[in-house]
Amino acid sequence: MSYRLFTKRYESFLEKLAMGTTGVKKALEVLRVQGHDPMPVEKGTMSFKVWTSFKIKRFRVPDLVCLKCGRRFEVRSKTKPEISMSHSQADPEREWDYGLNDEDYIVFVICQKQGSEPVKWRALEPLYFISVKDMREKEKDAYLSIPKGREEGFERRLIWPSKFALRDGVVLDVNKDSVKLRFDNGRKRKISLDYKLKNERTVKLKPLVKVGDRVVKNQAIASIVNITEQVPCNKDVGVDYYIKLLTSSSRVDRFIAAKALRRFNSDSAREALKRKLQDPSEEKLILYEVAASLMELNDENGKAYINSVIEKENPYQIHEVIISLCDVTPSKSFPIIKNILGNTTLSESVRATAAWALGELGLQEAFDVLVKTFDSMDVEVKKEAARALLQLCRKIQRPISNKIFEEFKLSSSERREGLSWVIGKMLKDEKETYFRGILDLVIDEESKIWVSYILGIQDPEAFKGKEELIRKKDEKLYFAANVLWVILRSWIWGLEEY
């Protein structure tokens, strides 16, 4: 397979992950407004990091659980309005409703691409909530799409027939056969409630609007399932519910309970988790969450278990432990992750995971640890350390950006290389905030090389009017940055031979 094809597949996968993360974050926000206490369950669901060094062997779990009512939410991000779920007819663990109960909900979020970068997405409202029970009852009237490609396991989409508004408008008429809309541009449209399936069978859609309703673009007008924009949080299950769930025969239930119990600071929660940690038959992925929860509840058994996993030096297990630790209070998990990053006897891939995790924790104390990593010979570790440092800057802002600028002036060439990448991204985020400070980084001949790189990788159009300031600072710097800008403007930039 060519590198170009690999890059395309990587970017396509990254887009899907980033869109999914955007949808989950939006669902969290909306559920909180509705009175829920949602907690992410799926490992890494709040990050769009693509792990190329590890083959992920996890099992499917819902994206979110409400700690108050116990209801689970599976979030599906879409680029267009559609009620569909990935579904495998060959693997029970890849069926659309695996790990979900009748009272749980699927949340559909429409996401819109923002710019050319694969990670930039915006979630649109309204969000659609559909009960798993309703979708199961109407599954007989759903239909399967053509299979996806090999890289997606030949899964198919199971689609529940539905129709949506193309733009904002008002409902003029609703009857047993159709819904009539008048859009804000003056045009009218009659939407038939008959939906013809590919096997020529026709199903009748149920209208979800009434006469006089205002509708917005992408709003569900009719469907075979009930679609709502709100789900009530109508019960309080308490700690005993999750303690019982920890002994369930379903590993999805046990995984959810292992994570949820860290939010209940009680002796009963600690005792249940300690018993589970001693269960020799339990799966390791669940035990990592049990140990992380015990750490969160200040029980030393959790920390001892995690350290025992790290001592075995199994890269995959340490990788999973690090990701579990990212959901623990940062000050508690930071010392362990810091030690993993500094342990040069561990594999490069594991130390790269640790560097990434320090960015996720967002602690200012990680600055010196990450900068020191630029002295390493391990390129993948340095790359993740640079990304983590950028994360810190975006989370903490001025306190970290000031330290980065000061560190650049004092550092060796090896450290300046990594710091220049971070500063270049900072400048792209906030040109006016950082431009003057970047010119002040020109303190010696070598610094001119990296400052010209920082300026040269920017959008040339964004720096129109600032060329003279750069020239006044240093002629060599201006010449080098301008050469890069000429190349970036050229139509041959990025041209492939095939």
Unreliable segments (pLDDT under 50, ≥5 consecutive)? 1-8
Report the major sheet.
5 strands, mixed
Overall mean pLDDT score? 90
What spatial form do the alpha-carbon principal axes imply? globular
Number of helices: 18
Please state the structural category: alpha+beta
Strand content: 15-25%
Radius of gyration: 26 Å
**Please, how many domains?**
5
Residues in helices, as a percent range: 40-55%
The total strand number stands at: 17
Subunit arrangement of the protein: single chain
Instruction: For the record, give the distance between the C-alpha atoms at the N and C termini, rounded to a whole number.
Output: 14 Å
Strands across the major sheet, in which order?
1-2-3-5-6
Describe the structure.
The protein contains 18 helices and 17 strands. By secondary structure, the protein is of the alpha+beta class. It has five domains: 1-150, no CATH class; 161-224, RNA polymerase II/Efflux pump adaptor protein, barrel-sandwich hybrid domain (OB fold (Dihydrolipoamide Acetyltransferase, E2P), Beta Barrel); 237-306, Leucine-rich Repeat Variant (Alpha Horseshoe), CATH 1.25.10; 312-378, no CATH class; 397-498. The strands form five sheets. The chain has a five-stranded mixed sheet. Strands 12-11-10-16 form a four-stranded antiparallel sheet, with no helix packed on it. Strand 10 (169-174) and strand 11 form a beta hairpin. The protein starts with a helix and ends in a 9-residue tail after the last helix.
